[in-house]
Amino acid sequence: MIKEIRLPKPKEKGSVSIEEALNKRKSVRDYKKASLSIEEVSQLLWSGSGKNLYRRTAPSAGATYPLEIYLVAGEVEGVEPGVYHYSIARHSLVKIKEQDARREVCRAALEQRMIERAPITIIIAAEYGRTTAHYGQRGIRYVHMEVGHVGQNVSLQAVALNMGTVMIGAFDDQRVKEVLEIEEEPLYIIPVGKI
Ligand SMILES: Cc1cc2nc3c(=O)[nH]c(=O)nc-3n(C[C@H](O)[C@H](O)[C@H](O)COP(=O)(O)O)c2cc1C
Q1: How confident is the model at residue 3 (pLDDT cuts 50, 70, 90)?
Q2: Which of 168, 176, 190, 195 to mutate to test the pocket of ligand 1 (most atoms within 8 A of CB)?
Q3: How many CB atoms lie within 10 A of CB 3?
């Protein structure tokens, strides 16, 4: 099993302006039956909270960075179906589970079928302790604010790549953790596909 996949460098310029992306953003629950390229996946993951010129594309309270990003890959050219952890530091994917998990994630999310149908799903999960260690109970609020930043980045990047997405908050936390085999708390499930 290949453990780490280095992702292509994300683009720093695109043809869709931030204004156009904002104007076109909406929840999309139907996608074309088309696979994504590794370049597209690289761009989407980077947009969420990748390294930028300064720190990261999304802010973090006290730079405590409580969020981890996972990729449920179904149809990505050159990438085997499976569950991957996105290493922000290395801009790479590390496989944590071999098989296509879309069906199981769909089931854990109250049978919201767009998860099963999308070529990929991005899952954002939190280790609250990184932030509450500094800010106590208020850190919980900060983590929830941060996941909104990351989710919005992904949704706008998707629009700019001519893709659609929907932010999913309705799911069984424990089941999602079991399917992904992760310790962090899942907060957002984001299927993405071409439109
Ligand atoms: C926190 C949050 C949770 C959501 N959870 C779901 C969900 O579980 N399933 C779903 O289909 N849409 C979900 N949505 C999407 C909303 O239904 C959608 O944003 C809303 O209907 C407005 O439509 P628009 O995004 O097209 O503007 C969620 C949105 C947010 C912000």
Answers
A1: confident
A2: 168
A3: 9
